[in-house]
């Protein structure tokens, strides 16, 4: 599908009017539900994600999973059947969802201080309500917020972001579905932005090795930007919750 | 969630006194929030939050071939997905039993032609029809799922806009359909007959509506009554207990009365919702 | 149903491994950037390929059938990749079930070949919107000694590149699939050759080890898989495991991998060329034929454990069978605790003791009863027109 549509126009604007290093609008809210121990809702562009965290609690089901020195992190990724343009047959269980579940667990395990909860389990459930590209990064970001809402100790925020290469030269941030289809390569990076460590990296389609460094740097920059946005959201949420219990001075 | 004996007694006494644990009377509903048109990929959608119960319904439409035995009718299908967000028990295939139960009861309630006219969905007799997928996503369970789901489904169907077919040309085996490109050229579904389900829950000697999760645990049995216009569409008894015929009649009366009230309130609300309003969704 | 658990890597093994790594050695004596010997062989059928990477062995078979294209891509063929991990490879693999590992491997292979558009899917189209070829690569892991992915990716690619589908013509209404005898089969168009190259990362990036063995894989912090083609283009990248890495570690490793990718691709291409030459010369084909001048037949690695045994058996041997000492294989001591067994060139290959013969062909060489000619109408290949109709539709 090599249509001659440019990912980046001559004046440096993308198909949806963003600049190359601009993120899509991120809106988020912590504590959307009361039943889970922590929950969050995150919109990144049109991609909409709900995340819920249960735990730490006793290991459910197969007890042999329990680890004597760390908590088990259990993730399930599922997509609402109406989340994509064409109706999906099943909300979960296909290869791609399983893969995202595995990757989600990998990224979150790296950020959670699992050693504090031996013999226990932390469940993270992510539901995609609307898919518009960059599902995995949005899931990681939403799950981070849900973990924070649940009060689970983290080493630091874990953020994820995608980056691509436009016109074989310019790195672009936060790829939308439209851009994915047109065929820009996509590099997904989940990182701990403060220490700059990468916990998961993944790439599809192709670009030359020489470009890797700048695309990777761009993605890491995206992770840092996202961290700031999430941090703001957490702070304002804490202030709201705190003010209702009367300890913060809200004026 | 589990309740101890003392808690159960407390709930029971509350019902007895007509002053339930959250201060409601026996025939009161909890506050509801309804929002339509919040899933942009769908042809119609609604989100209902009934206290802690959260349901998201989206309607998708596809072109399909009618069943050979009913060539003049379109198709309507319900799919319920219990998200693990609601409770970890729903992880993997854990929510499937409940999902099938709810989708079957919905399909049953919508089966009668008086309830929902499927012939309007036919495009070309025996060849083409619309197939409506009503996808229900349970996001949080705080009791009284049936009522919440039925109201949300009704609202989502109310919100649904079916594209207008301008012309159909038949050329041998090929059928060409011309669908209007205009965004506002669409037909709406008639949902005045769409059933509303009311769960009447028997606790002790009394019957209550809209049980919370705690109250559901105390009840021996419940009756899910779906009412369409003035008639009962289906009645489903759940739970392990049995009902005395006299109680059954009382339940039916209560259910009928409450369903009427709900229906009127819902239609009133739906008319009030401005279509141009910006969707807020979960960010509220 | 009781299932066999995966063998855990003990703390002792892990510590020993780490100690070795800090001395810049590996358990099997390779250097950090050294890969195990690679061997690519082809079977009698088109698209049947056997790859061994050290002791990891993988068999891949490409098959094809005609299907209706996906409505979203009406003019493109379909490529399905399916990796099977059965108990043959390792006892803890469950047959027929999708484990996390198989999903991960499958997705990585798909990304490597499908997303990078290595196979020209449009050339598989027979009639737009109606009929396209659906290629299916089945990858069976025969032995698991670490790094299945590299081995599987090589097998998959070689199998795809080797495969030829029957020719199809259309006379108005009907499609005719020509048998291999009627018309020459058509090779698949492959734009570029992407292969996976895996590195294990220890100690947060301090030690980066190429082509990890089973023990190394199990005790590594992370594995970095790099999909690369001959043009130094990245075709998939995956960092798995529980490591937190600095970006420069990844960039350095990727640079190292480019060199290896070219070697692997060259190996695949030459293997296919040799096979094609053999086919045109109508030499006997298939796995039972002995491959002459195999790259790794002269040096076979043996572990420390075996070396000691050999010493013992040598003494015993002298009692049992007097063999001229000059003819016995040499053992070259490379370094501390390391040895390489170099069998002497012997015309009849009689060896009185068995070495860890991972790379020696011990298959019984049969004289081919009849020469199978490609265009011979009597050959067995005539009934290959029905193409794996039992396959599962994904």
Automatic annotation (TrEMBL), chain A:
One of its GO terms (cellular component) is cytoplasmic exosome (RNase complex). Residues 22-153, 157-221 form the Exoribonuclease phosphorolytic domain. It holds the Pfam family RNase_PH. InterPro entries: ExoRNase_PH_dom1, ExoRNase_PH_dom2, ExoRNase_PH_dom2_sf, PNPase/RNase_PH_dom_sf, Ribosomal_Su5_D2-typ_SF, RNase_PH. One of its GO terms (biological process) is poly(A)-dependent snoRNA 3'-end processing. One of its GO terms (molecular function) is RNA binding. Gene3D superfamilies: GHMP Kinase, N-terminal domain. Belongs to the RNase PH family. This is Exosome complex component RRP41. It comes from Zophobas morio.
Automatic annotation (TrEMBL), chain B:
It is found in: Cytoplasm; Nucleus, Nucleolus. InterPro entries: ExoRNase_PH_dom1, ExoRNase_PH_dom2, ExoRNase_PH_dom2_sf, Exosome_comp_Rrp42_subfam, PNPase/RNase_PH_dom_sf, Ribosomal_Su5_D2-typ_SF. Its main location: cytoplasm. One of its GO terms (molecular function) is mRNA 3'-UTR AU-rich region binding. Transmembrane segments: none annotated. Keywords: Cytoplasm, Exosome. One of its GO terms (cellular component) is nucleolus. The keyword rRNA processing does not apply. It comes from the Eukaryota. The keyword Cytoplasm applies. Pfam families: RNase_PH, RNase_PH_C. GO terms for biological process: exonucleolytic trimming to generate mature 3'-end of 5.8S rRNA from tricistronic rRNA transcript (SSU-rRNA, 5.8S rRNA, LSU-rRNA); nuclear mRNA surveillance; nuclear polyadenylation-dependent rRNA catabolic process; rRNA catabolic process; TRAMP-dependent tRNA surveillance pathway; U1 snRNA 3'-end processing; U4 snRNA 3'-end processing; U5 snRNA 3'-end processing. Residues 29-163, 194-257 form the Exoribonuclease phosphorolytic domain. Belongs to the RNase PH family. PANTHER family: EXOSOME COMPLEX COMPONENT RRP42 (PTHR11097:SF8), EXOSOME COMPLEX EXONUCLEASE RIBOSOMAL RNA PROCESSING PROTEIN (PTHR11097). This is Ribosomal RNA-processing protein 42.
TrEMBL record, chain C:
Signal peptide: none annotated. Its main location: cytoplasm. GO terms for biological process: exonucleolytic trimming to generate mature 3'-end of 5.8S rRNA from tricistronic rRNA transcript (SSU-rRNA, 5.8S rRNA, LSU-rRNA); nuclear mRNA surveillance; nuclear polyadenylation-dependent rRNA catabolic process; rRNA catabolic process; TRAMP-dependent tRNA surveillance pathway; U1 snRNA 3'-end processing; U4 snRNA 3'-end processing; U5 snRNA 3'-end processing. Residues 34-166, 192-250 form the Exoribonuclease phosphorolytic domain. GO terms for cellular component: cytoplasmic exosome (RNase complex); nuclear exosome (RNase complex); nucleolus. Keywords: Cytoplasm, Exosome, Nucleus, RNA-binding, rRNA processing. One of its GO terms (molecular function) is mRNA 3'-UTR AU-rich region binding. Residues 310-330 are annotated as: Disordered. It is found in: Cytoplasm; Nucleus, Nucleolus. It comes from the Eukaryota. InterPro entries: ExoRNase_PH_dom1 (IPR001247), ExoRNase_PH_dom2 (IPR015847), ExoRNase_PH_dom2_sf (IPR036345), Exosome_comp_Rrp42_subfam (IPR050590), PNPase/RNase_PH_dom_sf (IPR027408), Ribosomal_Su5_D2-typ_SF (IPR020568), Rrp45 (IPR033100). The keyword rRNA processing applies. Belongs to the RNase PH family. This is Exosome complex component RRP45. It comes from Zophobas morio.
């Amino acid at each position: 599908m090599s249509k001659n549509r440019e990912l980046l126009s001559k004046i440096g604007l993308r198909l949806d009017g963003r600049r190359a290093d601009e993120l899509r609008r991120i809106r988020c809210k912590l504590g959307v539900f009361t039943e889970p121990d922590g929950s969050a809702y995150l919109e990144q562009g049109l991609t909409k994600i709900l995340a819920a965290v249960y735990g730490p609690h006793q290991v459910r089901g197969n007890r042999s999973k329990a680890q004597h020195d760390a908590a088990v992190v259990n993730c399930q990724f599922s997509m609402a059947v109406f989340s994509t343009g064409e109706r999906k047959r099943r909300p979960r269980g296909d290869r791609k969802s399983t893969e995202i579940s595995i990757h989600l667990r990998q990224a979150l395990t790296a950020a959670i201080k699992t050693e504090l909860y031996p013999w226990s389990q932390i469940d993270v459930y992510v539901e995609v309500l609307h898919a518009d590209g960059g599902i995995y990064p949005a899931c990681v970001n939403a799950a981070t917020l849900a973990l924070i809402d649940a009060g689970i100790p983290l080493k630091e925020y874990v953020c994820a972001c995608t980056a691509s290469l436009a016109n074989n030269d310019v790195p672009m941030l936060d790829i939308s579905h439209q851009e994915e289809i047109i065929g820009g390569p996509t590099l997904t990076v989940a990182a701990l932005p403060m220490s700059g460590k990468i916990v998961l990296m993944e790439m599809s389609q192709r670009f030359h090795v020489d470009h890797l460094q700048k695309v990777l740097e761009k993605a890491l920059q995206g992770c840092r930007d996202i961290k700031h946005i999430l941090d703001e959201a957490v702070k304002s949420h804490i202030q709201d919750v705190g003010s209702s219990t009367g300890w913060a001075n809200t004026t | 969630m589990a309740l101890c004996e003392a808690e159960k007694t407390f709930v029971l006494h509350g019902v007895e006194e007509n002053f339930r644990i959250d201060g409601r009377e026996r025939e009161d509903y909890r506050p509801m929030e309804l929002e339509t048109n919040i899933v942009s990929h769908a042809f119609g959608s609604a989100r209902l939050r009934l206290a802690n119960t959260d349901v998201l319904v989206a309607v998708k439409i596809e072109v399909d071939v009618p069943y050979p035995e009913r060539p003049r009718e379109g198709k309507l299908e319900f799919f319920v997905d219990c998200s693990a967000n609601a409770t970890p028990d729903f992880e993997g295939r854990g929510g499937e039993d409940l999902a099938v139960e709810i989708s079957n009861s919905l399909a049953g309630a919508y089966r009668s032609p008086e309830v929902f006219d499927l012939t309007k969905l036919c495009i070309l007799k025996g060849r083409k029809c619309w197939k409506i997928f009503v996808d229900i996503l349970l996001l949080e369970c705080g009791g009284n799922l049936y009522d919440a789901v039925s109201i949300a489904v009704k609202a989502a169907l109310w919100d649904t806009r079916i594209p207008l077919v301008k012309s159909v040309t038949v050329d041998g085996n090929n059928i060409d359909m011309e669908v209007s490109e205009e965004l506002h050229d669409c037909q709406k579904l008639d949902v005045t007959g769409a059933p509303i389900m009311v769960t009447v829950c028997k606790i002790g000697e009394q019957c209550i509506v809209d049980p919370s999760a705690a109250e559901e645990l105390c009840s021996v049995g419940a009756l899910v009554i779906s009412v369409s216009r003035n008639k009962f569409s289906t009645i489903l008894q759940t739970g392990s207990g049995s009902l005395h015929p006299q109680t059954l009649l009382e339940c039916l009366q209560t259910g009928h009365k409450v369903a009427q009230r709900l229906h009127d309130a819902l239609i009133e609300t739906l008319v009030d919702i401005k279509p141009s309003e910006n969707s807020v969704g979960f960010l509220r | 149903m009781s299932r066999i658990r995966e063998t855990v890597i003990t703390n002792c093994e892990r510590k020993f491994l780490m100690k070795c790594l800090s001395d810049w050695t590996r358990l099997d004596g390779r250097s950090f950037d050294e890969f195990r010997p690679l061997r690519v062989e082809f079977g009698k059928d088109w698209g049947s390929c056997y790859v061994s990477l050290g002791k990891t062995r993988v068999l891949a078979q490409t098959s094809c059938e005609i299907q209706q294209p996906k409505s979203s891509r009406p003019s493109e063929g379909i490529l399905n990749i399916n990796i099977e991990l059965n108990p043959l490879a390792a006892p803890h693999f469950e047959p027929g079930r999708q484990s996390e590992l198989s999903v991960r491997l499958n997705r990585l292979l798909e990304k490597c070949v499908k997303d990078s558009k290595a196979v020209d899917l449009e050339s598989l189209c027979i009639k737009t919107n109606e009929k396209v070829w659906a290629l299916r690569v089945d990858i069976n892991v025969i032995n698991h000694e670490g790094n299945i992915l590299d081995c599987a990716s090589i097998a998959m690619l070689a199998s795809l590149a080797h495969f030829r589908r029957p020719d199809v013509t259309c006379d108005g209404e009907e499609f005719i699939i020509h048998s291999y005898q009627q018309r020459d089969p058509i090779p698949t168009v492959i734009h570029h050759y992407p292969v996976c190259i895996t590195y294990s990362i220890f100690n947060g990036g301090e030690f980066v080890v190429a082509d990890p063995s089973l023990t190394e894989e199990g005790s590594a912090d992370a594995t970095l898989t790099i999909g690369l083609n001959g043009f130094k283009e990245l075709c998939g990248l995956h960092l798995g495991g529980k490591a937190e890495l600095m970006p420069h570690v990844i960039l350095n490793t990727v640079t190292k991998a480019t060199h290896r990718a070219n070697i692997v691709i060259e190996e695949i291409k030459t293997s296919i060329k040799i096979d094609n030459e053999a086919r045109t010369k109508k030499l006997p084909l298939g796995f039972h034929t002995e491959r002459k001048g195999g790259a790794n037949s002269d040096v076979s690695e043996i572990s420390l454990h075996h070396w000691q045994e050999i010493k013992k058996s040598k003494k015993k041997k002298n009692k049992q069978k007097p063999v001229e000492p000059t003819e016995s294989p040499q053992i070259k001591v490379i370094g501390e605790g390391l040895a390489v067994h170099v069998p002497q060139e012997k015309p009849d290959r009689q060896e009185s003791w068995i070495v860890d013969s991972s790379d020696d062909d011990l298959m019984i060489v049969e004289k081919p009863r009849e020469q199978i000619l490609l265009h011979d109408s009597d050959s067995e290949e005539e009934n290959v027109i029905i193409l794996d109709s039992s396959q599962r539709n994904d």
